[in-house]
Automatic annotation (TrEMBL):
Matching Gene3D superfamilies: 1.10.287.1260, 2.30.30.60, 3.30.70.100
Region (Disordered): 298-335
Similarity field: Belongs to the MscS (TC 1.A.23) family.
Domain Mechanosensitive ion channel MscS as annotated: residue spans: 127-189
Subcellular location: Cell inner membrane; Cell membrane
Organism (species): Limimaricola litoreus
Name assigned to this protein: Small-conductance mechanosensitive channel
């Protein structure tokens, strides 16, 4: 038994000793690689020259596209188009350089590999590519421009820049909002400065006994004299409702579309119309409410003729009871 156990390790040692490293084959491979590299040096030099030429060509194409967009007043579209064409030119130059270095690789193989890679990249960067496509469509169709005041996704402000991924707006309180282009392209967007005029309105409540026509004429005249109110279209006042506290008149006027103009003119119109109505004695009522307190603990409970919680009617009706009297009477009983 001892001889058998000792024989196995000796056989393994002998077999390991018989394995020799073929150093000559390794050096032959390294020498073959070096020879191949030196044979490819001319191709590599030509490929580098091609890359440099395409790099300058890409810069030239980008400059031409950017200049063309600027000449047409489409700076953002020119910048985006220049960036896309620059990268496309560089990719074509790189593919051509690869075919020069490795002649066995055909352009068809590169395009096939590029197609498979494009599918993989499309799945990995779906949101980025979606925003980029939406940004290009926004720049081409131009529903709004840089400097326009828009409302999108609950955010309102002035468009600062339209990029391939997002649109940047500056809110009226001095903050920046970055909105993805896909959200802007698929959702509703309100462009406040799309036209050269914008209408504002305000509801004014006058007394029920006041003359509606005179009040309307006075409001139109006063609004027309306010700074910033446009004369064409002229202001108008429309009777809008007969409410519980008075009659409602809706005053409308037009201004420049910018937010600053709309806000400041609105303040001037409200101030001047109020002063004019007040000077003419037009009633500007406040909502009034009457609260009746009913005492359900007296002997007269259920007899409505004996309960006078409000203003007394004419005739022999009893005088109205007052809470102060009831409190005073109760205090005197306790004392």
């Amino acid at each position: 038994m001892e001889d058998e156990t000792e024989a196995a390790p000796r056989e393994e040692i002998d077999s390991l000793a018989g394995v020799d490293a073929d150093t000559g084959n390794i050096f032959e491979k390294i020498d073959a690689w070096a020879d191949g590299f030196f044979r490819l040096l001319p191709n590599i030099a030509v490929a580098i020259v091609v890359l440099v030429l395409f790099w300058f060509l890409a810069r030239g194409v980008a400059w031409l596209v950017r200049r063309s967009g600027k000449a047409r007043g489409r700076d953002n579209l020119g910048n985006v188009g220049a960036s896309l064409l620059r990268w496309l030119t560089l990719i074509i130059g790189f593919m051509l350089a690869v075919t020069i270095v490795a002649p066995s690789i055909s352009p068809g193989d590169l395009f096939a590999g590029l197609g498979i890679g494009s599918v993989a990249i499309g799945f990995a960067f779906k949101d980025i590519l979606q925003n980029m496509l939406a940004g290009i469509l926004i720049l081409i169709r131009q529903p709004f421009e840089v400097g326009d005041q828009i409302v999108s996704g609950g955010h309102e402000g002035t468009v600062e820049r339209i990029e391939t991924r997002a649109t940047l707006i500056k809110t009226y309180d001095g903050r920046r909002v970055v909105i993805p282009n896909s959200d802007i392209y698929t959702d509703a967007v309100v462009v406040n400065t799309a036209f050269d005029k914008r209408r504002s309105q305000y509801d004014v409540l006058i007394g029920c006994s006041d003359d509606i026509d005179e009040a309307c004429a006075l409001m139109i005249e006063t609004a027309g004299k306010c700074e910033g109110v446009l004369s064409d279209p002229a202001p108008e006042a429309i009777p809008w409702g007969m409410d519980a506290d008075g009659n409602t008149i809706r005053l409308r006027w037009w201004t420049q579309p910018a937010r600053a103009d709309v806000v400041h003119v609105r303040g001037r119109v409200i101030r001047d119309v109020y002063n004019a109505l007040d000077a003419k004695g037009v009633d500007l009522p406040y909502p009034t409410r009457m609260v009746l307190f009913h005492d359900q603990t007296e002997a007269t409970d259920g007899d409505r003729t004996a309960q006078r919680e409000g203003w007394p009617v004419k005739g022999d009706s009893p005088a109205p009871r007052r809470i102060e009297d009831a409190i005073r009477k109760g205090a005197s009983k306790e004392s």
